[in-house]
Amino acid sequence: MEKAGKRILVVGSGAREHAIAMGIRSGENDRDVIVAPGNPGMSEDVTVRSDIPEDVAEGAEWIASLEPDLVVIGPEKPLSQGLGDLLKERKIPVVGPTREAARIESSKVFAKKRMQAAGIPTAQYQVVSNPEETRELCRTWGFPVVLKADGLAQGKGVSVIQDPDGLEDAIERFFVKREFKEAQDLIYLEKGLSGPEASFIVLTDGKKFIPFPVARDYKRIGEDDRGPNTGGMGAVTPLDFWTDGDQSEACHIVERCLWSLSKVGSPFVGFLYAGLMKTEEGLRVLEFNARFGDPEAQVLIPAAGDSYCDMLMSTASGTLDTGHRMIADPRVAVVMASRGYPENPETGYFLDGLDTARQIKGARIYTAGVSIKDGRIVSSGGRVLTATGEGALLPDARRVAYEAIGKIRLEGGQYRRDIGIVNPR
After folding, report:
1. Integer distance in angstroms from the first to the last C-alpha of the chain?
2. Domain spans of the chain?
3. Using CA atoms, how far apart are residues 387 and 405, in angstroms rounded to an integer?
4. CATH topology of 124-191 equal to that of 194-316?
5. Diameter of the chain measured on Cα atoms
6. What is the pLDDT of residue 147?
7. pLDDT at 424
8. Block means of pLDDT (10 residues each) for the chain, length 425 residues?
């Protein structure tokens, strides 16, 4: 396995990027780990550079001026804008797919076509262009169905429809209000599937890959899995329903996806995320993402242990060693969000208790939507932070995570209290 360099740059600002950066720091504290633009909650752990330009071409020049040994791109947006391509043109090692390969996430219809070409099992779908066409297809298929925006919508451009009332609500959001803007230039309807969900994430150099332990996230804002979809309110690993047969089937799906992308000249390098549903007929792909999930990253990256940075370097160079084994300890992540999230988050409130929470054995705190006001950390986004816990058993990990998040004070802060107990639908 290739030995990691000393200056590593992580692109992004959320809890996922905080987790990526801390994984890189694991086992070797003399690495210069930079997160750009980062957030001030990370500043005690890594170097935060908020001055990275937003324009992707200017950002690539700015990154090149730092002469990093490796760049890890966290969020989907810069990947879809081609940041990885621009850095590779400058001979900078990158963990993150090209713009074309990232279409596996930035265009759900592209992903569906690649799945069909590769024989990957997924739900039947059809592109729809108006409300009446959508209603007619629902009359033909019956419920449940899923209405999806083709492009990037921060995990929110999906509406699971159970009945005619839900259909009319989804039509209002997609066709009348156009809530997802350019992400919904294409809209498609998908037949509903039934079964427990799993997040299957691998690190790949385009040919070989290493799976992380399987996890699942909690998308809904409310307890008992109610309310609107969010970017993710929590995550757990491992999953009690996951079998060796499921693992083998999931690996085959990833192999077929990598083959399909290579066939069209777009080999995928980075974190490939397969959102899976375990149906009575076997695993079905709900979606592919071109990056690590959030909050799945917060429970899965520690599984890589001290070899994480070396794994990233060998991924970027195309020499990934698949002999590495993950540490599949139970972990639970709980996200704290601002009041009003996901529709209208209220921000600007002081955040207290972070240091106390970090002292709890087995706990980790990863910050996301925070900034500085009067020398103190305040909320500045919808999802504010993630508290994770690990333990010998899943209930132990859950207890640690909730003990940690219970120490943190944020006016109006909200978090689910059933992560790790209730199975999300």
Report:
1. 40
2. 8-95, 124-191, 194-316, 331-410
3. 6
4. no
5. 62
6. 92
7. 60
8. 74 98 85 96 96 97 98 96 97 98 92 94 92 93 91 77 93 87 82 95 97 96 91 96 97 97 94 97 96 97 95 96 90 98 96 97 98 96 98 97 98 97 66
- Overall fold of domain 8-95: Rossmann fold (3.40.50)
The predicted pLDDT at position 115 comes to: 95
The reported pLDDT for the residue numbered 229 is: 85
pLDDT of residue 323: 87
**pLDDT, position 1:** 47
Q: Is residue 134 a contact partner of residue 171, using CB atoms and an 8 Å limit?
A: yes
* One-letter amino acid for residue 358 of the chain: R
According to the model, what pLDDT value does residue 183 have? Answer: 66
Residues forming a β-bridge with 161:
145
Cα dihedral: 372, 7, 75, 286 (round 10): -140
Task: Reply yes or no on domain 194-316 having CATH 3.30.470.20.
Answer: yes
Is residue 407 a contact partner of residue 399, using CB atoms and an 8 Å limit?
Answer: no
Superfamily the domain 124-191 falls into: ATP-grasp fold, A domain (3.30.1490.20)
**Pick among 3.90.600.10, 3.30.980.10, 3.30.1330.40, 3.90.150.10: CATH of 331-410:** 3.90.600.10
